[in-house]
Fold this sequence. Notes:
Order of helices and strands: HEEEEEHEEE
Number of helices: 2
Helix content: 10-25%
Amino acid sequence: MKDATNYILSEFFRVLNGAITYESVPVKVFAIEQDEADTDNLFVRLYAAYTTEFNTKTSFGSKVYINLEVVNRLTGGERTEYKVNDVANSISELILPAPSTTALADNADFQLVNVKSGGPSTNFNERSNTALIVRKIITFEVIVNQL
Length: 147
């Protein structure tokens, strides 16, 4: 049985990278962590939460949970969650553009069976020495079969 995690992470990155904007400004997507040299205050982190086997009698399968964390560092007077909520909505619309459809694609090793929102999103805030950091985590559940 093959691990589908890298395939699914790659598909999310392919769909989202360069496609998310806020007020016509591109929002960068990073795998795991923002580049140290990058100073953007609004960005998205993409990472796998966990994977479980989802086998049937006739095929190997996986259920992969992907987290997307929208981060906004607020250094001025703004103190709202508007930006992270708007970006999270954009992500959901890109990944699931209509009922029963997804922008993710099959590859030579895996066939998508189902993609859905993985449950409620979580908002939380933390304060650093220089900024208020507002975050929203959204989760997607992706079921695939190995070909």
